[in-house]
Design a protein that fits this description.
The chain is an alpha/beta fold. The strands form 2 sheets. A 7-stranded parallel sheet has the order 3-2-1-4-5-6-7, with helices on both faces. Strands 10-9-8-11-12-13 form a 6-stranded parallel sheet, with helices on both faces. It is elongated and about 70 Å long.
Length: about 400
């Protein structure tokens, strides 16, 4: 999303503050940037408070202000930001305080409650995951409006926290259709990644699994599944920051070595150009295992790039992947099913092309950044247009 993408300017700028732990990598962070850019492009005042990270320059380039406060730190020291945040909200006459993670939410909520109603912003939370069910996680249900990023998350809130349905807004996360567009990814960008990742055979099928190197992302299941189809030609790329979890990286490398797959599976680290990475791939995998994806941004981005996907059949993937039409859904932690789906993808190029065409259409109709941002702004405007939210905590 870039300033200038939207021509219509609003009559009254809204002053919005978003809070989250950091701005390094991940779907929560990307969604924060996209909404911030959308708000700035429409003439609203967008501020993000976080501990900082590699995404800050992009945030600021797109017209938002960043305040570097480590509000996601799990330490009593985080309480020192209580008064600075309180003063900031009053001084800046903030209209919307939108929190996206539990530790920042606790600080924000108590600051919000301490303010006189005459200067209190409207309070919005986004429930981004299947958080553990306890009093600590319950803070994410304290918003005057709560955004659920999938139907599964909505049901989780209602079933386990008893949240009133009228306070919940279902807003799927989205992909930026101006960035995740196959027609604009040049061969120069793709060749740069091929050279960087030492991919010499341009005709070899490439299987990509993007995601943090975390046990629940299922890289171990992915590797085991690949070990069962070594009779086929393929190269696999695990995309994810190796420095973020070096112990997990070492574990996975040892597994690859033990299975004799060092020349076929590569850990390429963080990638700044995911559209080009998707375009390099023949199939994109989401192998989340012990925990479901709350939404599953990776498979949506892949489908936007016209690529078939293989995803585990739980959580958000049940809503974002059309099994047998845009990709394959397989049971979680089922290495046999995953290896079978990967073999199908490698051996059926025509079917993959068909899945890719259907996938892009499916995403453009349902999961775009514009749609996500429009619906979020609508939540803000509804709150600001009401004298009383009808909710007290």
């Amino acid at each position: 999303m870039r300033p200038g993408d939207f021509e219509k300017m609003v009559a009254r700028p809204i002053r919005v503050v978003q809070m989250l732990p950091e701005l390094n990598a991940g779907g929560v962070e990307r969604g924060t940037l996209e909404l911030a850019a959308y708000l700035s492009a429409l003439g609203h005042q967008s501020t993000v408070i976080s501990g900082g990270g590699r995404m800050v320059p992009e945030l600021e380039a797109n017209g938002s202000r960043h305040i570097t406060w480590p509000v996601g730190r799990k330490s009593p020291l985080v309480l020192k930001y209580f008064l600075p945040l309180r003063r900031f909200l009053i001084h800046e006459a903030v209209d919307i305080l939108h929190v996206r993670s539990r530790v920042p939410a606790w600080i924000a909520f108590w600051v919000w409650k301490s303010l006189p109603e005459s200067v209190r912003p409207r309070f919005v939370t986004t429930f981004h995951g299947y958080y553990s069910i306890n009093a600590y996680s319950a803070i994410m249900t304290k918003g005057e409006r709560i955004i659920a990023i999938s139907k599964g998350i909505l049901s989780h809130m209602v079933d386990h926290y008893g949240v009133e349905a009228e306070r919940i807004e279902l807003i799927y996360r989205g992909v930026d259709e101006k960035i995740f567009d196959p027609s604009i990814v040049s061969s120069v960008r793709m060749n740069h990644l091929r050279k960087l990742w030492k991919i010499e055979n341009a005709l070899l099928p490439i299987i990509v699994l993007p995601g943090r190197l975390s046990p629940w992302k299922g890289q171990d299941c992915f590797i085991q599944s690949l070990s069962r189809i070594t009779d086929l030609q393929w190269t696999a790329l695990c995309i994810g920051d190796k420095e973020e979890n070096p112990f997990r990286f070492q574990e996975l490398q040892q597994m690859v070595s033990r299975l004799g797959l060092e020349k076929r599976i590569r850990f390429v680290g963080h990638c700044e150009d995911m559209p080009a990475a998707m375009m390099l791939s023949d199939v994109v995998v989401s192998a989340s295992s012990s925990e479901p994806e709350a939404f599953g941004r990776t498979v949506v981005e892949a489908q936007a790039m016209g690529k078939p996907v293989v995803a585990t059949a739980h959580g958000g993937s049940l809503e974002t992947v059309l099994d047998g039409k845009t990709g394959w859904l397989v049971p979680p932690q089922d290495t046999d099913s995953l290896s079978h789906a990967l073999a199908n993808a490698i051996l059926n190029k025509n079917l993959c092309r068909e899945f890719g065409r259907e996938g892009r259409k499916w995403v453009m109709d349902n999961f775009t950044v514009r749609r996500m941002c429009e619906k979020t702004l609508n939540v803000y405007e509804q709150l600001l247009n009401r004298a009383d939210s009808g909710y007290s905590s």
